[in-house]
Description:
By secondary structure, the chain is an alpha/beta fold. It has helices spanning about 5-20, 90-105, 170-200; strands spanning about 30, 50-55, 65-70, 75-85, 110, 120-135, 140-150, 155-165. The strands form two sheets. Strands 5-2-6-7-8 form a five-stranded mixed beta sheet, covered by helices on one side. A three-stranded mixed beta sheet has the order 1-4-3, covered by helices on one side. The longest helix is centred in the C-terminal third of the chain and has 28 residues, at about 170-200. It is elongated and about 60 Å long. The relative contact order is 0.18.
Amino acid sequence: MPKQLTGLILLAGFCMMLTGCGKGSPPSSYYILTSSSQMTSAIQPIEDISVGVGPVSIPGYLDRSQIVTTTGSNSITIHEYQRWGNSFKAQVEETLAENISILLQTPQVTVFPWERALRPKYQVFLTIRKFEGEATGNVTLDAIWQIANVRTDKSLLTRRFMQSFPVAGNNMSAYVQTQSNALDALSKEIVKGLEAVAHSK
Length: 201
């Protein structure tokens, strides 16, 4: 067999192994959590309030660039080509901070860690136990949140939030929007708690 023909055959075989004869991987899609533009405050502005959000703790299986959904009570799906546009943990922190800022009607809401000059009066700690669900079913958010006085390092209030939210659609955009809706609901509960501790002094 001529050397030139042998070389062409080897090259074709190498191409098939690397790309499946031109069939590359599908492009990745990227998603972000968002605060609600429709969110309105049901409380009166609280004088001289400042809030820090974080640290937020999330399960290790969610702390990845790929979006995770459940497929059963003991199984998950890691969507290789459906990814977060930023750290999932960071997005949860930033979305909560923006929601709380809107609800409290104050810009004095920051995300942990903060500079000394921006040290807030109250700090919201959050431990997320579960924040996923079936892609076209329900998203469940199960979290423990705590409000502490930053100056005294004293815990003022600890509550558990657990609620399921139906996914209004059959695509990943609808799933991520449902997660954003869940954070909206959690933010409202946290703001009620902040209102309670601020008025109890």
